[in-house]
Amino acid sequence: MRLLKLFISSIGILFSAFVSVGYLLTNRMMFIKKKDPSTIYEREILLNEEQRNWYERVPKKDIQIDSKHGYTIHATVIQTINAPRYVVFSHGVTETRLSSIQFAMLFEQFGYNAIIYDQRRHGNSGGKTTSFGYYEKVDLQAVVQYVKHWKGPDVEIGVHGVSMGAATAILYGGTYEHHPLSFIVADCPFSSFSKQITHIAQGDTSPYWTERAVQLANLFIHWRDGYTLSEVSPIRVVDKVDVPILFIHTLEDTFILPEMSEDLYEAAKEPKQLVLLPKGKHALGYRKNREAYRNAIADFLQHVKKD
User: Fold this and answer.
1) Cis omega before residue 271 (within 30°)?
2) Is residue 92 helix, strand or coil?
3) Cα 98 from Cα 43, distance rounded (Å)
4) Contact 113/77 with Cβ under 8 angstroms?
5) Which of 53, 103, 58 is nearest to 78 (CA)?
6) Residue 77: domain span
7) Ranges for the Serine aminopeptidase S33 domain (predicted)?
8) Does residue 200 lie within any of the structural domains?
9) According to the model, what pLDDT value does residue 16 have?
């Protein structure tokens, strides 16, 4: 009887440890710590005179879009061009729509208006968890459909995404048939979220335990948030994207490795372009290579822009 009690107690302890580790791993994913919005505002507006002056002078309107998941997506329409051409900007994890201002300014030079929006659980948008593209792609669909319904069948819509936002753009383009997009620009996307979290964990755990941790996280993320890590894999759907894609990555990016963009490029259908920039850590490609980044966008749009 004593051995049986000891056995049951041991099983209980192991199960409790299993659940605790599973919750810890998935909490770090689902409720990833975000940047302070005031820090982003200071970086993008207060301390950036060029962006501040531009953002203050352009006609803009804050809008609210209903998510299919039951919350509100907060967005801003920036209307500077008298033409039915729009780019929807999908920002990275921990950021807000303000980090997209730099790209809205860039695309204005090529005749595009902008829709910047807050991803779920970021900025002013609702949503309880971050899913790194799984649920975010549904919100991106809602934003794109808003533009389509607002401006009609002749509107040209592109998507520019950074990091998680780039993965979201690919997942959207490769998941939904008959979408109205004309192009996608994917700046430093991950190819597979499982591989990405494994890469991050490599710094302080062995490959053996990293693999086990990913398997455990996959089990708990499915139980807690309704999807599996394999469903957050742009590499699995990029070949279904039927519009031109420009992949941009910096060679100095050690957070999401440039090899991930190279893999996505190889798997994507034509027409496609890949630009590897020499300078800049993660998500800093434009800030550190402004002329080269602009030239890459100009060359890409030359082949996709409607008259």
Assistant:
1) yes
2) coil
3) 9
4) yes
5) 58
6) 40-192+232-304
7) 86-194
8) no
9) 54
